[in-house]
Amino acid sequence: MAIQVNSIRSQFPILHQEVNGNPLIYFDNAATTQKPKVVLDAIQQYYEVDNSNIHRGAHTLADRATQQFEETRESVRAFIGAKESAEIIFTRGTTESINLVAKTFGSAFIQKGDEIIISTLEHHSNIVPWQMLCEQNGAILRIIPITDTGELIWEEFEKLLSSKTKLVSVVHASNALGTINPVKRIIDAAHAVGAKVLLDGAQSTSHLDVDVQALDCDFLAFSAHKLYGPTGLGVLYGKRELLEAMPPFLGGGEMIREVTFEKTTYNTIPFKFEAGTPSIAEVIAFKSALDFITSTGKANIHRHENDLLKYVVDLLQDVKGIIPVGTAAEKVAVFSFNIQSMHPFDVGQLLDAKGIAVRTGHHCTQPLMRRLGIEGTVRASFAAYNTRNEVEVFAQAVTKIASLKNK
Amino acid sequence: MSTIADIQNEIVAEFEILGDDRESTIFYIMELGGNLEPYPEDLRKEEYIIQGCQSKVWLVAEEKEGKVHYRADSNTDITKGLISLLIRVLDRRSPKEILEANLDFIPRIGMGNILGSQRSNGLAAMMNQMKRYALAFQTKQNA
Prior knowledge:
By secondary structure, chain A is of the alpha/beta class. Chain A has helices at residues 5-9, 37-50, 60-80, 94-109, 128-137, 154-160, 183-192, 212-215, 240-245, 280-296, 298-316, 344-353, 366-372, 388-405, and strands at residues 18-19, 22-23, 25-26, 88-91, 115-119, 140-144, 165-171, 196-200, 219-223, 234-238, 256-259, 264-266, 322-324, 334-339, 356-357, 359-361, 377-381. In chain A, the strands form five sheets. A seven-stranded mixed beta sheet of chain A has the order 4-10-9-8-7-5-6, with helices on both faces. A four-stranded antiparallel beta sheet of chain A has the order 13-14-17-16, with helices on one face.
């Protein structure tokens, strides 16, 4: 079913404004998506009517807030196909989710000489936590190389796998290039040598159907704000037996069962990993974001975004001076490119003058940029509310900029 | 020779012609970068890169007959244009003039609004580095 873009757009108040004298064209969705009115309303409703600290409150407001908070956990469970909602842990974002696994699973189950495999496509947040862990405990970080088109080299991955591999932590869809990795194959191959797999789902969960049971991944990390939800909220999915075996992350309220000055016993999952008062309003509003996605239909959104991606490639591929970066066969709706003899910053600034928001630079993937021999790219990334007309305006603006240095 | 204030007034007048058209203003700034004296390749070193700029900026200065001569380059065209404006205002002047200069043309042409905060911070870093060179030369002159 084709989605009704106009009716979707009408649900996003922020889109209806001018920037620098032009209608805003928001193509920075891989950084963060805009929020539909239902999400904004849910935040306001919470603070106006239900604001209260959750769990353990012996009053009606606390009860209401707790109930809504836990309803989101159930929505997230359904959204990613987890077996039970206790496997859903709320964090501050993908970065914190990955750090949580590195600090807890990593310190308990990865020892000196063990190996962790990541890929060249990773965001810094799926590199640095493992480097920190390796520095601490003497584990070894291995990197899957990529082709010039931005795809993992399978044979090289297979060569890296061994009985020493304890964890494979890979991005599902690359934020810089859009490449979709063959994660099911990766998970099966890793499990065959006894390794666990963490998927960085920051970019995939908003575009693809991610079913953790079908994939059989051990961990999945993603952020609410890239899924039309609030900022400052992330999710870590983990299989029950792993979460139970892992030591806690932060110490404090909520994560304890009983504290005496001699000894503390920890709460059950998921609360063991949710010390302190969480982002209650954000969690509650996130349910509305997931409802928005589900009611629009993920497959419909994905088809629409793919159509925009194909359209932009069609419009720009023969323009003199345009160098697409990342041309994998399977991609989410990310169009990364450079213009011959121009710096991405300058291109971004000129597009901004036309009211077009894109991201420029290394996209927190410096090792990937180094591998591709570039400093950065200009990245346009699409969401459900973007239109073919916006793509046309963007392509015209890019064509004009490219002509400056490419006569 | 025109004073620093005169040149700043000239620049402000030139930008006024462009009015509110942000795109034309940026194109104009990018063209200005073409006025920069070619930067010597042997001075394209890490130690001459200005810290605090998002894009790479190399800046060197030398003193000739009591005047400071600047040479600079960047890997982005907009930044090159901005440096060329700073050089146009401050180049081949005495350290005293440079240190006393009130560089108000940047806010007067509404550059912060055009460039956004990242580039404005970079511009401030460039200005400070140019003044730092002037201070070093002045200290040497007075020694």
